């Protein structure tokens, strides 16, 4: 990618990045309605550019087959995770993307340590993995509703008041381990305002085709708004690291949130800058030999190498006995 484009993207997302070591107070530090002076009508074009760049990078990432990327998406209900994934990944090859959604843990999952189920769904080399909800639920919903922690049947030593601090530390180390082994981790929090959530819930009730998305439990969860804001603020403060930073994306305008999420992903891939593998002199010599054999197999009247005939200096070779 041209350097100026990479720099423009880096500048665009800089205000969204949680500086490692900083103390976040969500309400004070991040405005869910921020839109960087952009207008909605500029949005479509920008998103298209982002999606194109992503497709390009993904192709190189897959070809190089050395690095993987994990994008963790977190939000409160109706924050726009599903729509963001649909739009941002619309241009990429489905073979190279692995989306995993995490729900209330199953009994099998509860039978293991709390990071186990996330480990199972990590992207492989050359892949982009998206976590729709992630291991961060383990310090969010589990913290806001301690009965979730009860269900995890932890030994005495793994509980206690510093359990969240220890989980932050575990998570930072786990992400560090992944990064050191070629898997870049990047985290996006879609930051929705309370009022916009209310409006989106009402829309889910008003539109029949959205009814299936509505859950009375989500509305009950709204009562815990302040607890979540606090849990998010502490989690962002403790787990935004140099190797796996958090971006707080303003989510009240869906079109803007999607541009930001695409930009964060493009920026992450630009940091890896994956390259198509090239072949050495010996392998190229082999390729030339094989090409000659294939050209000799051209049926009567056919181009020896139709691709080269169209794109390069073509030479029509008549096969023996073809006249
Ligand atoms: P949805 O994303 O609407 O399909 O809902 C998934 C539900 O699973 C949400 O209510 C989450 O709070 C819940 N959930 C996700 N991860 C966990 C977890 N580790 N422990 C408890 N609940 C979870
Ligand atoms: Mg839901």
From TrEMBL:
Residues 292-323 are annotated as: Disordered. Residues 313-323 have a biased composition (Basic residues). Pfam families: PPK2. Residues 41-271 form the Polyphosphate kinase-2-related domain. Keywords: Kinase, Transferase. InterPro entries: P-loop_NTPase, PPK2-rel_1, PPK2-related. Transmembrane segments: none annotated. GO terms for molecular function: kinase activity. This is Polyphosphate kinase 2 family protein.
């Amino acid at each position: 990618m041209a350097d100026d484009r990479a720099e423009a993207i880096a500048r665009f997302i800089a205000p969204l990045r949680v500086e490692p070591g900083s103390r976040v107070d969500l309400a004070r530090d991040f405005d869910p309605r921020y839109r960087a002076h952009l207008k909605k009508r500029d949005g479509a074009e920008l998103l298209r550019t982002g999606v194109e760049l992503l497709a390009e990078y993904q192709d190189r990432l897959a070809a190089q087959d050395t690095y993987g990327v994990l994008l963790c998406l977190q939000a409160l209900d109706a924050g726009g995770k599903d729509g963001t994934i649909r739009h941002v990944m619309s241009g990429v090859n489905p073979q190279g993307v692995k989306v995993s959604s995490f729900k209330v843990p199953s009994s099998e999952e509860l039978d293991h340590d709390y990071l186990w189920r996330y480990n199972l769904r990590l992207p492989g080399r050359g892949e982009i993995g998206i976590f729709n909800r992630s291991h961060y639920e383990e310090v969010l919903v589990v913290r806001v509703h301690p009965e979730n922690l009860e269900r995890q049947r932890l030994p005495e030593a793994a509980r206690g008041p510093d359990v969240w601090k220890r989980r932050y530390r575990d998570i930072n180390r786990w992400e560090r381990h992944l990064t050191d082994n070629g898997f870049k981790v990047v985290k996006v929090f879609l930051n929705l305002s309370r009022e916009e959530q209310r409006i989106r819930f009402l829309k889910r009730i008003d539109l029949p085709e959205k009814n299936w998305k509505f859950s009375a439990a989500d509305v009950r969860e709204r009562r815990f708004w302040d607890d979540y804001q606090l849990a998010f603020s502490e989690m962002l403060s403790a787990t935004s690291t140099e190797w796996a930073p958090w971006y707080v994306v303003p989510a009240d305008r869906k079109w803007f949130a999607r541009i930001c999420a695409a930009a964060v992903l493009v920026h992450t891939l630009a940091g890896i800058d994956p390259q198509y593998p090239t072949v050495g002199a010996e392998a190229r010599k082999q390729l030339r030999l094989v090409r000659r054999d294939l050209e000799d197999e051209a049926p009567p009247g056919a181009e020896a190498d139709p691709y080269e005939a169209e794109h390069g200096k073509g030479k029509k070779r008549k096969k023996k006995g073809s006249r």
